[in-house]
Specification:
This protein has 133 residues and is mainly beta. The chain is built from 1 helix and 7 strands; from the N terminus they run ββαβββββ. The protein has one helix at residues 59-62, and strands at 11-16, 42-46, 63-71, 84-86, 92-94, 108-116, 128-130. The N and C termini lie far apart (46 Å).
Length: 133
């Protein structure tokens, strides 16, 4: 398969963290409202369905992984460190599994990127903020 650039961003459905005191914020398009859940420390996303040239993308076949970035600043760039990865079809990540764990009372920002089987990276998703109380 020829090398294709993936869709500009992943559609992050929301950091489902408001029950932990988190809230959503976005630097681009309107932000989906985070929803309280029994697992409020879970990030949920929707994998891209198209490459940048509008060719259909099959997440199971075309994506290798989702990279998850978390830090205490709201901007993300190429030099940031991946704190976790997930399979594209998982569509969710539980922050409780991080080692070392995230601190309570600290505001964190999260963004994700899709990585194709050929190694191409999407842009960073919208940024969401959250904190554990």
């Amino acid at each position: 398969m020829r090398h294709k650039k993936i869709l500009a961003t992943l559609a992050v459905l929301g950091a489902l963290l408001s029950a932990c005191g988190g809230g959503g914020s976005s630097s681009a398009s309107p932000t989906p409202t985070p929803t309280p859940t029994p697992q409020a420390e879970t990030l949920v996303w929707e994998a891209p369905q198209y490459f940048a040239d509008n060719t259909p993308l099959n997440p199971t076949r075309d994506l290798q992984r989702i990279e998850i970035y978390v830090k205490e600043e709201a901007s993300f760039g190429p030099g940031d460190i991946v704190i976790a990865t997930a399979m594209p079809v998982d569509n969710a990540f539980n922050f409780v599994t991080l080692d070392p764990p995230l601190s309570k009372g600290v505001t964190y920002y999260v963004s994700v990127r899709a990585i194709t089987t050929e190694g191409a990276k999407s842009d960073f998703s919208d940024v969401f903020s959250f904190s554990f109380q």
